[in-house]
Design a protein that fits this description.
By secondary structure, this protein is an alpha/beta fold. Helices cover 38% and strands 15% of the residues. α2 packs across α3 and α4 packs across α5.
């Protein structure tokens, strides 16, 4: 397919800055997050964006707006969907991550953050996030790529981990080692099933305590 898929994680939110587990809490970007979101737009300014997607959460929407505005692409058709929302961290939402790491222990904490199907009290596993993200991708995003449109998706650390697992055919064990960086944009060429043919990474250096 000629259409390129560009994916990006929202930049620093108010809760990222505080080290709090955000999940589906609707935190705005910080001043630094707004500035770095504009920087993200500048490094893809050479690519014509034809369609954009974002989650329903404000930090994703603000990041997308910054990217499009700095590229003078305010009129690009945009779709917002809860299917792209961040993982629900249930009872851990709003807790300080590093205090929680101390109380749970490093091994359990890492499984909680990264594992494929590790339970969260009243929340979602990564597997559950995958089960909403990938069908949305196949139904809404992939058809636009097949129409030779360049598509930008701005979402969250875990919803993008789920998407990358599908795109790059990463195993259930292997996805634990993958993290979507702040400030990075992945630019993919995909086959007709939405799997990777080529990948380019562009990045603006970012320091986020998350």
């Amino acid at each position: 397919m000629k259409g390129k898929l560009i994916i990006a994680r929202h930049h620093e939110s108010e809760w990222n800055k505080l080290g709090l587990w955000t999940g589906q809490y609707d935190a705005h970007l910080t001043e630094y997050g707004f500035k770095k979101s504009e920087d993200m737009g500048l490094i893809i300014k050479d690519i014509k964006i034809d369609q954009a997607f974002a989650s329903m959460e404000v930090r994703s929407i603000e990041t997308l707006s910054c990217i499009l505005n700095v590229c003078n692409l305010e009129k690009v058709p945009t779709v917002h969907s809860a299917a792209l929302n961040e993982r629900d961290y249930g009872e851990y939402t709003g807790m300080n991550k590093w205090d929680l790491e101390k109380s749970l222990g490093e091994e359990k904490f890492n499984k909680l953050r990264r594992a494929w199907d590790y339970p969260v009290p009243n929340g979602e596993t990564l597997k559950m996030v995958y089960e909403r993200v990938v069908p949305f991708f196949l139904k809404k995003v992939l058809p636009a790529l097949k129409e030779e449109k360049n598509v930008l998706v701005v979402a969250h650390g875990n919803s993008l981990r789920a998407l990358v697992k599908y795109i790059e055919n990463i195993s259930e064990d292997g996805i634990a080692d993958f993290q979507m960086p702040f400030g990075a944009l992945f630019i993919y060429d995909l086959d007709l099933e939405g799997h990777i043919l080529n990948k380019e990474v562009r990045e603006t250096k970012s320091q986020v305590p998350a």
